[in-house]
Amino acid sequence: MRSETINPREAYDSFNKEDLKFKTPLGLNEEIVREISKQKNEPEWMLNKRLIGLNVFNELKMPTWGPDISSLDLEKIHYFMRPNANENSQNWDDVPEEIRNTYEKLGIPEAERMVLAGTGAQYESDVVYHKLKEQWEKKGVIFLDFDEAVKQYPELVQKYYMNSCVPIRLHKFAALHAAVHSGGTFIYIPKGVKVDMPLQAYFRMNAKNGGQFEHTLIIADENSQIHYIEGCSAPKYNENSLHAGCVEIHVLKGARVRYSSIENWSKNTYNLNTKRAIVYEDGIMEWVNGNLGSKVTMLYPCSVLRGKNARTDYLGIAYASQGQHQDTGCKVYHLAPETSSTIISKGISKNGGISSYRGLVEIKKGAVNSKSSTRCDGLMLDNISKATTIPSLEVAENDVNVSHEAVVGKIGEEQLFYLMSRGLSEGEATKLIVSGFIEPVIRELPLEYAVELNRLIELEIENSVC
Length: 466
What we know:
By secondary structure, this protein is of the alpha/beta class. It has a domain at 10-299. It has twelve helices and 26 strands. The radius of gyration is 21 Å and the shape is globular. The protein starts with 9 loop residues before the first helix and ends with a helix.
């Protein structure tokens, strides 16, 4: 995705001087929610959704069952910030130079030219660049900034937005998202169209005390196919930031969707994201997740297998270093006969970091001949880190095949000794062992992104091995 530099980490940690044309005050109230909707010139039904979200957000309590998020002060977040840039430019030259340089460092324009069918780039609360290659436009593919889709395809958006897939009352941060969402991606793939090049969106937070709440809505019509990639990053400040995006995916009969995500938020960011898919008959939903940054991540991509012979696969990597708690996993609801799910999760912890797998597989009565396999592995690279697995299996049907395997352990002294006896340093040996540990996930990413994720993990290890 990006070329090598003297300090590869700088591309993610650097920040621009704040240059905004609008910023809400700290905190959240009805006036702010109405102002967001007004600035976006939204229809009344969307404003009503926002107000419902605000009411539910105020009603629901903060989660207490996972990582400690007590230091997140929701009254010290700017919930809407508009950069001083035009929205939805289709030419990188029209994007302000400072913002464009940020994306150049991250390699987004280069990736667009070489391997992508289309690209979106969001900076703070606005999408500043969005473009789909002409060959896919001619086939009826819709790839828009979500806010623009509300204007151009209101009936389609209203049908699918935060109804059956991610209901507003799902949890407190889903409700918050409904109230303040801004930007994001809308994709519609027509019946029978198979997009053989990935679409990508990249989300960047820059300002202090910022919040980002992009909404991704993907509708894969019958027998269609799409691979969508999201990347996320933010510079490091002393103040906390919040990311509470939402992904809704509808995989209609016989369709196939792969969603790949590399999230590299700074280590002062609370990443409280929601990702869900509904999969209909003969549909396939594939999740590939890499989580490295953030102070706390709570992320559990969910597939609801609603149709006969629906399938989902989940591959996830989480890396936690000092001061980080990566609480990630997967949820699958088997609601129909002959559905199947495969879950592979890899957690790595170093320098006192905590990596947790938290997952749920539920097979409802009537989902006969369903199959589910879960493997979650935790690798600790020292004696002060933690790796845990918290799986849950709820099976209400007898005629099913369900398996779960969990392995948590410390990096092997014998492995390190053997590799170091062959001339490798401790750091080089550690990186080699970690590369083998995460290989099942890496091989499922496009080459450019596999190289990027490998390099990010190597950088984390280099920074932590004395």
